[in-house]
Task: structure prediction
Amino acid sequence: MGHLATERPLNIMSKKENKFIKKRFNKNTYKDVDYFLLGAWNFKKEKHRIETYSEAKKSFLYEIFQKITLNARNEFFNLFLVNNNYSKYKSVIDIGSTPSIEKEQNTFLENTKDNQNVTCLSNQDCRILQKKYKNIKNVIIGDAKNTMLEKDSFEIVHSNATIEHVGSFENQVSFVKEMLRISKESIFIQTPNRLYPIDFHTILPFIHWLPKKIHRKILKFLKKDFFSKEENLNLLTTKELKKICEILNIKKYKILKHKLFYLTSNLILVIYK
Result:
């Protein structure tokens, strides 16, 4: 999943932050410890990320969930191949890459190892990915809503589970608008479906169907402060994806639906230029 964070050099961390790293970040609990030696991070968001990861591994459902996630993301990639006229010779940018070398987190990179024209963009420092994926041409730290890249920079723009983390609906429109600007041929955006009975971020059923303000108040009450904020989680429906296309006057697009246990768990917006 993609994340939004603010850069914070390692050498200006507070005593509290350094204590947290020494206590939590070791290769037994988190494989990406080298990421922190590379530079930028956001303490509160990364603290939440690691604690969630560590707690999840204690659950007997963890292995099952990981298998479901991997299978789903491989299916997303197959849909990407079918709907984007992809070849290993085309230039591709992955928007919202995450600094994890686990297959479940970067399935797209696992499946594009034979492409020497892959770029990753994230507002986290993802240089660790180049240690595993030697084919990555470039890693960019930037804002997905304003990449500062030239128009038509890449033939295909790909994004997996990032748009729900960019904030408000207006930010989500800006996110898609920027992807349109830097793409030559097509855009592939995958996001969880808000109407699926379970929210995979909080692993809670049904409450995300409530009005968003009420949903966030409940999450805060349940001590899930991170996901209670719009800037960290703003789930979308098919109707809202169509609204984005309408606002941006996008005519050539389709919305694919991925099902899990016979219900639509994920939505995929494919846009053609």
In short: DSSP finds nine helices and nine strands in the chain. The chain has two domains: 10-60, 63-272.
